[in-house]
Specification:
Layout (H helix, E strand, L loop, with lengths): L2 H22 L13 E5 L3 E2 L7 H13 L5 E3 L2 H15 L19 E10 L2 E10 L5 E9 L4 H23 L6 H12 L6 E10 L2 E2 L4 H12 L3 E3 L9 H6 L11 E15 L2 E14 L5 E13 L2 H27 L4
Parallel strand pairs: 1-3, 1-4, 2-4, 7-9, 7-10
Antiparallel strand pairs: 4-5, 5-6, 7-8, 10-11, 11-12
Helix pairs in contact: 1-2, 2-4, 5-8, 6-8
């Protein structure tokens, strides 16, 4: 990218900030009630352009300037964001007192975070941005593209406007839901408390990218929630490597005597992305609930999740655990709907 484009982008940023000040007389976010505006943090973009080490920061400043002129958006000061990211890394490494640990993603109160890239693709100049829910890790991607010699300021303007529109339409779906999963599970457990519960065996195999996992987090979480709900859960080693279809098409093996239902499934985790010293992983899990009564399939569910941590394997485990908890909730909801009332 020529140096002239870089200089032009600087002047475009200055001009945009001046227009905002003249049009409103004060920061636009101040005109919105604090509780009505979505707190958004914009990180430096990645821009691998030789001789222009500041380009990524300049694009981020431009995007932030444009977003500051949009109703319903409250920007987090970027200097405070950098300090919070450092604090978050220390918290995860155990240096900071656990009771004061900052939850990953809650960057100085931001509900949404913007990261992005500027790069050339063939004869095109590309700008891409990810809008990430800091409490859910859900992602919305937007992009802008132009010719290789196109005005970078115009591309950044287009990208910022798309981000603003996405924030208006997708913010609530990207942010944390109002009712925590723990509350919903506790409510279902209370409803099942006085009912006659079946005996269950659980087996969910796990793989992280291309290697098997010895201590499966999804299976452990499902077992824990079922036990806490009053179910008798038995460990049956013969379920390992046994396809669910076998239990549907023939009598159950003797090792399953006394077991009413079997939860079988598979789970996968994979590295997602790196942000500074932080690493994110995604996970997907699928389960099937089978009945001894003819091997009937009573429930078939899937769940996906993401998590961020300093270590890849810890992020993967936590993402899998989230999947296990989501599937546990759906199992309890099934039992609440299907088991007879006392």
């Amino acid at each position: 990218m020529p140096r002239s484009a870089c200089i032009e982008l600087r002047w475009t940023i200055v001009f945009s900030l001046a227009v905002c000040a003249l049009a409103t007389g004060e920061p636009p976010a101040a005109s919105q009630p604090v509780d009505a505006a979505v707190p958004v943090a914009v990180l430096d973009f990645a821009a691998s352009v030789a001789g222009q080490p500041e380009l990524g920061g300049q694009i981020a400043e431009f995007v932030a300037a444009r977003l500051s002129d949009q109703p319903g958006i409250r920007l987090v000061e970027r200097g405070a964001l950098t300090r919070a990211l450092t604090e978050m890394e220390l918290s995860l490494s155990g240096v900071v007192d656990e009771s004061k640990t900052v939850k990953v993603g809650r960057l100085v109160g931001a509900k949404l975070i913007v990261t992005g890239r500027a790069f050339a693709l063939g004869e095109k100049q590309m700008l891409t941005a990810k809008l990430i829910g800091t409490e859910t890790s859900l992602v919305k991607v937007v992009s802008a593209e132009g010719a290789a010699n196109s005005d970078l300021g115009a591309l950044a303007l287009s990208l910022a406007d798309k981000l603003a529109e996405s924030i208006r339409t997708d913010a609530r779906s990207l942010m944390a839901e109002a009712s925590p999963a723990a509350d919903r599970i506790a409510s279902l457990q209370a409803k099942l408390k006085a009912r006659k519960l079946p005996v269950i065996a659980v087996h969910v195999s796990e793989t992280h990218v291309s290697r098997a996992v010895i201590d499966p987090a999804v299976e452990t979480e499902i077992r824990r929630v079922l036990i806490d709900s009053g179910f008798e859960v038995r460990a049956v080693s013969t379920l390992s490597g046994l396809p669910a279809g076998v239990l549907s098409n023939q009598p159950w093996p003797k090792a399953l005597d006394g077991i009413d239902l079997v939860v079988m499934g598979e789970a996968l985790s994979e590295f997602g992305a790196r942000l500074g010293n932080l690493q994110s992983c995604g996970a997907r899990a699928e389960i099937t609930l089978l009945s001894r009564d003819g091997g009937r399939v009573l429930l078939s569910e899937r769940a996906t999740a993401r998590h961020i941590d300093l270590e890849e394997h810890l992020a993967a485990k936590a993402a899998l655990e989230k999947c296990g908890r989501a599937l546990s909730e759906r199992l309890l909801a099934h039992f609440d709907a299907s088991l007879p009332s006392p």
